[in-house]
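Late entry, written up from scratch paper. The run itself happened at the end of the previous shift, but nothing got recorded in the book at the time, so transcribing now.
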Amino acid sequence: MRFRLQPVLLMLLLLPLLNGCIAVVATGAVATGSSVHDRRGFGTVVDDKRIQMGAYDTINKDKELVLKNRVMIAVYNGVMLLMGEVRTPELKQRAQTTVTGFEGVQRIVNEIEVMEPEGFWTRRNDNKITARVKLALADATSVPGFDATRVKVSTAHRVVYLMGIISHAEDEIVTEIARNVPGVERVVKVFEYRGE
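Output as recorded:
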């Protein structure tokens, strides 16, 4: 009986260590799979995610910005996009100042609206709009070689924000598709253009 408990006990002790390894392997596989179609290098994809997580961590330390307002952050190829709603122009500037200075950020685009933050159901509707735009982009076949996963889509109060490294021809198609998705009130492009 004593010998049978030791292997079980050893497995239980090692389980937390294995769990971390599995997460690293799974994350690497997911990042590698999604970065195959991305026009950013793998290191840039990882840096963008690191910057985004660090920026959220910094914003979350400012309780007024977190609890009474809504600040959303997207990062693509070193460009940080701020979206959402805050109650005053001072808070809009404070949000930008709070996330300024991250290594690897080339520029900050502050699209935060000064207005009363919208509620749960509006945010849920924004998530639906994002999903609809992504689905509509997946059907874009008029530009040869276009891959919808190259466009990062975010939505805040029915405004769709598009980020990515694309061609001018792709820009026209992507923007037109996003504008025609039901519920979209406006499209904001934060694209970088690759050489034609």
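Strands lie at 70-76, 79-86, 107-110, 113-114, 151-156, 159-166, 186-193.
(Scratch paper discarded after transcription.)
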